[in-house]
Amino acid sequence: MKTLMNYIDGTFVPAQSGDTIEDINPATGMVIAHIPRSTKADVELAAASAKSAQADWNALTLDQRADWLDAIADALQAKHEAIAQAESLDTGKPISLARRVDATRSVDNFRFFADFARKQQPLTFEMSDAMNFVERNGLGVVGLITPWNLPLYLMSWKVAPALLMGNSIVAKPSEMTPLTANILAETLDELNLPRGVFNLVHGLGPEVGQGILEHPLINGISFTGGTATGRIVAATAAPMFKKLSLELGGKNATIVLEDADLDQAVQGAVKAAFTNSGQVCLCGSRIMVHASIADEFIKRFVGEVAAMRIGEPSDEATQIGTVISMDHLEKVEFYINLAIEEGGTILTGGTRSMMGGVGPTPEGAYLAPTVIGGLSHLSRCATEEIFGPVVTVHTFDRLAEVTEMANATDYGLAGSIWTQDVEVGKALAKTIETGIVWINTWLHRDLRTPFGGVKHSGVGREGGQWSLGFFSETTNICVMNPRELGD
Ligand code: NDP
After folding, report:
1. Structural domain boundaries of the chain?
2. Phi, psi at 18, each rounded to 5°
3. Which end of the chain is flanked by fewer CB atoms within 10 Å, N or C?
4. pLDDT tens-place string over residues 401-420
5. Which residues, in sequence order, are bridge partners of residue 34?
6. CA of 221 to the centre of ligand 1 (A)
7. pLDDT-derived band at 353, boundaries 50, 70, 90
């Protein structure tokens, strides 16, 4: 049993109140760690420490900070397996997924931003009589708040560019998945990152998270989480004129056109719907398939989903582990029951899984991957974010119709289109109100590209230049040319 601490001013410390929260393994219901239940008093210490460290950190050159990112990437790479194990234990995701996606990308985020920084050119704009030099500095102290679905993957996606651009940090992971944020803090401590540059405060959203939002020393907030929480973040931080990046929920469409390669489309739709038990903001939780191929597509899709291997997260062969908690399982089940009330048909799944015939483990948050047909694309299950292993299937006849269906939700984060005619796919992609569209693939990421959503899926973009822009302030220095002296 671990007892985690906050990491404030270069020291591991408990919450000042001494209170703790249990960290529970969703596969067993067992307590695996205790974490500090911090309060605003702990945020106060973290923000003050970050403030006092920021100027010296910002005074380093971009290349020097890039070297730090490389050192962090090396150190995390050495802990790749420990990160994957911790992530699987905390979230209930399959260990193979935690290795392939979570641990790998956490290292890659630091490596990518280090390389990206070294490719930056000075920003200058020449006039006939003057020269403009654009200087970039850190915002100051930034607050980073992250969710439970991809814990270190998402935290490192913010920490790396924030450090790179000269900011100091107060970070809060979800209290349900604190283990890998602790590994990051231990790693930075081992590397002797200057004290105060990175501070980690564990605890509950309305207590620690809210404390970060409200703190006057914190100049910017990068938040990834649910849309309802995003609304609170904006309402608190915007009147204080804090810079804000909001990466929120999604209800993404997987669109299968009549000329799609069916094998590719079926495999892609399964991956898009059920990776991490559907708990990725980018998951394709609504499938829209052309009516002419719908019977064949649905038969093959349902067959693949029914054959997915549900099992213990630690089993190498497991494809579907648990959802994040029993509470979340009940929320997902609410939507499955609602689908039936709304006239839907469960084509496979819908139940707490039978764990390969051994019998449901009442303590584990296992839910079979679920496919629902027969619902209107306007039904609640087809428009609200369920964030679990549930996908609804709909049919369409015309491209204009599928555009209208895909846009009939408040969300606009991502989507995928499956077609052999790339030009038709690109033209359709432009009609979808969303931040990201993949054609004949899903979650294929180039970290230089903009990532983020429209409508209720968020405000702003992260990735490559967009991250550097968010985590910095610019000063334009305009220098008049020396007047030419005549003879
Ligand atoms: P939440 O919005 O519940 O929580 C996200 C983070 O915010 C957690 O650390 C949470 O703490 C904290 N928080 C909660 N209340 C407050 C508050 N009042 N002030 C400040 N912080 C607060 O999201 P989930 O953790 O449930 O994550 C799932 C959601 O995240 C889904 O909607 C998903 O779509 C979205 N998401 C979006 C992504 C994107 O890039 N667009 C990527 C991944 C997920 P605590 O855990 O203690 O409540």
Report:
1. 2-248+457-476, 253-439
2. 80, -5
3. C
4. 999 999 999 999 999 999 99
5. 3, 22
6. 13
7. confident
